[in-house]
Amino acid sequence: MNRFGLIGLIVVIIVVGLIAWQYEIPSSQTPTISDLNQNKVEPGTIRVEGYVVKKSIKSGNIIISQTNESLTDYTQLTDDDLIIYLDHPDRYNLGQKYTFELMLESYDSQGHPIYSLK
User: Whole-prediction pTM value?
Assistant: First the structure.
């Protein structure tokens, strides 16, 4: 292999490595729910896990929490809780722990995370 072929091969390997790295979720992007609610997370793809502590089939959402303590209403929400809107909240069980992959877009003017499910 000539010198230019070797350089080309090295460039291809570096580019492929960078593309593959771009789609990995770094361990630093596996925040807690409170990290997310306190604006400590950079926008991008993240994984967040929590226990289902409340679900509303009618409103199409569940609330996940870092602690497995059920909520009776939305006034009890803390930084440890996150509302996730879903098409089928009935598929999730109260008290069960789940991991969700989210695309964190940004934060609104009040500091709430703006995200979508992946």
Answer: 0.71
Decide: 92 and 98 in contact? Cβ < 8 Å.
yes
Identity of residue 101? E
CA distances for 12 relative to 24, 37, 69, 92, angstroms: 19, 40, 51, 44
Q: What are 63's strand-pairing partners?
A: 54, 83
Beta strand extents in 1-118 (DSSP E only): 44-56, 61-65, 81-85, 97-107, 113-117
- Mind listing the pLDDT tens digit for each residue in 20-72? 444 444 444 579 999 988 888 888 889 999 999 999 988 899 999 999 999 98
Pick the CATH number of 27-117 from 1.10.10, 1.10.1240, 3.40.50, 2.40.50: 2.40.50
In degrees rounded to 5, what are phi and psi of residue 38?
Answer: -100, 20
The DSSP-derived string for 65-78 is ESS----SSGGG--
